[in-house]
């Protein structure tokens, strides 16, 4: 089947999609947009209760997944695949200056933010290559491109996601597989709310002031960009990083 021109704009009918960290926040918005577009979605999340609740609402499948466990990743991907679309969305920040972090912090942040993308992509690619079609979409962060005071390890991990995405795009274009990343700015999610709770209104003002639009983004705005990259109409886009950040990537 050709990778383009087969479905109406933004439709994913017949596609199977995997979304890590899909139970809440940006992940949940992506899951809903995919389901609305006709895809069958597997919601992979450590919070199986939240994943199951969302799955029941939209007719998706929930799977408990610890993305730091590569063996578990392989098992879940094999059990529920093959997949046409993989969204590596799971992420965690540390909100601490680098001198206050430990090697254990680094290992945890790298495992969740970077190694999980390796594991899920590695598990999904062979079937995509055999099918001659695939969409890999990785959620990175503007912190990967700009740096983050109080988030050095998170920024480094998310920067690795961008480099990884480009490499996967280069290796897999010949199989009809595209790989792109989305770099959100400050989005109204549970992770951002946790940062604001810790840092107060000063943190919230700093986040919004860093954008040109002077506001927080909504999870649905990120999901709209992901849906486009997953669609047939994005077949000629690969190796790119799209900022969904209110202009944060342009600087002040």
Task: List the SSEs and their pairings.
Layout: E1 16-20, H1 25-36, E2 40-45, H2 48-58, E3 61-64, H3 70-80, E4 85-88, H4 103-131, E5 134-139, H5 142-146, H6 152-172, E6 177-184, H7 190-199, H8 201-209, H9 219-230, E7 241-244
Parallel strand pairs: 1-2, 1-4, 2-3, 4-5, 5-6, 6-7
What labels describe this entry?
252 residues, alpha/beta, 7 strands, 15% strand
What would you say this structure looks like, in words?
This protein is of the alpha/beta class and 252 residues long. It has 9 helices and 7 strands. The chain has helices spanning 25-36, 48-58, 70-80, 103-131, 142-146, 152-172, 190-199, 201-209, 219-230, and strands at residues 16-20, 40-45, 61-64, 85-88, 134-139, 177-184, 241-244. It has a 7-stranded parallel sheet, sandwiched between helices. Strand 2, helix 2 and strand 3 form a beta-alpha-beta unit. The longest helix has 29 residues, at 103-131.
Question: How many β-strand stretches?
Answer: 7
Low-pLDDT windows of residues: none
Q: Number of helix segments?
A: 9
- Note the gap between the termini: 45 Å
Mean pLDDT: 92
Structural class: alpha/beta
Topology order in helix (H) and strand (E) letters: EHEHEHEHEHHEHHHE
Basic shape: globular
Helix coverage percent of residues? 40-55%
Largest sheet, order of strands side by side? 3-2-1-4-5-6-7
Proportion in β-strands = 5-15%
The biggest beta sheet, please? 7 strands, parallel
Radius of gyration: 17 Å
Brief summary:
This protein is of the alpha/beta class.
């Amino acid at each position: 089947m050709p990778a383009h021109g087969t479905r109406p704009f933004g439709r994913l009918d017949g596609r199977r999609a995997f979304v890590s960290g899909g139970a809440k926040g940006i992940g949940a918005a992506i899951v809903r947009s995919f389901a609305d577009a006709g895809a069958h979605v597997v919601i992979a999340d450590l919070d199986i209760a939240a994943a199951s609740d969302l799955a029941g609402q939209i007719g998706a499948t929930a799977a408990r997944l610890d993305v730091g466990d590569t063996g578990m990743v392989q098992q879940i991907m094999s059990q529920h695949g093959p997949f046409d679309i993989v969204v590596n969305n799971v992420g965690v920040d540390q909100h601490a200056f680098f001198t206050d972090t430990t090697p254990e912090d680094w290992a945890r942040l790298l495992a969740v933010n970077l190694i999980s993308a390796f594991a899920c992509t590695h598990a999904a690619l062979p079937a995509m290559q055999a099918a001659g079609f695939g969409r890999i979409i990785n959620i990175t962060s503007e912190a990967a491109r700009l740096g983050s005071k109080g988030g050095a390890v998170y920024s480094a991990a998310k920067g690795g996601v961008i480099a990884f995405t480009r490499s996967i795009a280069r290796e897999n274009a010949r199989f009809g597989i595209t790989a792109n990343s989305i770099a959100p700015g400050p989005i109204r999610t549970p992770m951002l709310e946790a940062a604001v709770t810790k840092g107060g209104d000063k943190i919230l003002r700093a986040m919004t002031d860093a954008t040109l639009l002077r506001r927080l983004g909504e999870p649905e705005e990120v999901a709209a960009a992901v849906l486009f990259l997953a669609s047939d109409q994005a077949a000629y886009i690969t190796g790119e990083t799209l900022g969904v950040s209110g202009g944060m990537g342009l600087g002040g």
